Amino acid sequence: MSIDSRSTPQPATSVMDQPQATRPGATNTVRVGVIGYGYWGPNIVRNLHAIANCEVISVCDKNPAALKRAQRAYPGVHLTSDFAEVLRSPDIDAVAIVTPVWTHFELAKAALENGKHVFVEKPFTSTSHQAEELIELAERKNLRIMVDHTFLFSGAVRKIRDLVENGTMGPLYYYDSTRVNLGLFQHDVSVLWDLAPHDLSIMDYLIAEKPEAVVATGSNHLNHLADMAFITVYFRSNIIAHFNVNWLSPVKVRNTLIGGKDKMLVWNDLDPDEKIKVYDKGVAITKAEGVYDLLVSYRSGDVWGPKVDSTEALKVELEYFVECILESKTPSNDGAAGLRVVRLLEAAEESLQARGKLVMI
Ligand SMILES: NC(=O)c1ccc[n+]([C@@H]2O[C@H](COP(=O)([O-])OP(=O)(O)OC[C@H]3O[C@@H](n4cnc5c(N)ncnc54)[C@H](O)[C@@H]3O)[C@@H](O)[C@H]2O)c1
């Protein structure tokens, strides 16, 4: 499937099928309830709160300390520890689910059953069956699902996608990323399910071709969950992708190398000024008739630092979520995109458990 066809808007539906926020005569505001105000939830609430045609109606967290923090920051917002209150409220059009991974399915399912659009954290679900069920339910109810693949909305990834799509890079050879730091250890998921969704969603966004197979290795040192993993994704063409994710690194590294036939680039997400450097470097091999040795020529041209939009990715993403609801558009990071990532995670998990077995997708 091409990247563009993934973002094809859904066909128009009858007025009665349309959720409240998109019915004619409804206000042009999306009213949101946010479930989960731990580490990431405050970023979601802050960005939703700043969007003109969006209103944060309630924040829900079962932890009273989290609700206290929310109350200090947003005195007018309704607070509750009962997620059912948010899911059943007739004053809420959409629910943002910012809770641990194992809770995503139950909460998203209940939200959709109650007629709410869903913004759900990465990874979408714990299994591909769960993701398929949610996608089917949302389609039946004509509701949107957006999976928080935040990096797709960063200036750097949008710039890289331009460079790939407009042919600057030439045909891609490889995608190679390192995402390592000390912690944050999660209670319910391994480093594979916590950090790799970022890289897999970026790979999925940049490389239109469907992956063929996965090999993963990894290890756990502190509990039963892997704290470091090395994942290789094979494609039918000669593109190869590799990810190094690690919670036991003394330093934080966010480096990605992308090699194309015509250009190569380095993306250092921690560099405040020059996140992307594009290198006019390459290798060509010719084998003239009768010449035994290969003739290898190396091209080493200019280095270029393209301008990268510094707008907060989550701001761009949540504005797009509101737009998709109001205009009945299917987001590019919809349930299907979330499912593609979950399938890769499942394959990588199976491979990792079998110490690097090749798992076909
Ligand atoms: N997109 C990103 O860059 C990004 C970054 C960090 C975390 N995340 C994702 O966000 C999600 C949450 O991660 P976190 O680090 O904020 O976790 P966290 O543990 O810090 O916060 C989760 C909060 O949810 C609350 N909660 C759990 N179950 C609940 C329930 N049934 N009802 C009400 N409240 C409930 C907890 O009390 C807690 O305050 C995860 O899926 C994670 O993968 C995404």
List the defining traits of the structure above:
361 residues, alpha/beta, 9-stranded mixed β-sheet, 6-stranded parallel β-sheet, 10 helices, 32% helix, binds nicotinamide-adenine-dinucleotide
Structural notes for this entry:
The longest helix is centred in the last third of the chain and has 19 residues, at 335-353. It is built from ten helices and 15 strands. With 361 residues, it is α/β, with parallel strands linked by helices. Strand 2, helix 3 and strand 3 (78-80) form a beta-alpha-beta unit. The radius of gyration is 22 Å and the shape is globular. Helix 6 packs antiparallel against helix 10 (335-353). The protein has helices at residues 3-6, 41-49, 64-73, 83-88, 101-113, 128-140, 155-165, 191-206, 313-326, 335-353, and strands at residues 30-35, 54-60, 78-80, 94-97, 117-121, 145-148, 172-182, 211-219, 228-235, 240-246, 248-260, 264-268, 276-286, 295-304, 359-360. A nine-stranded mixed sheet has the order 14-13-12-11-7-10-9-8-15. The structure holds nicotinamide-adenine-dinucleotide. Nicotinamide-adenine-dinucleotide binds at residues 35-41, 60-63, 66, 83, 98-101, 103, 121-122, 148, 150. Residues 35-41, 60-63, 66, 83, 98-101, 103, 121-122, 148, 150 line the site of nicotinamide-adenine-dinucleotide.
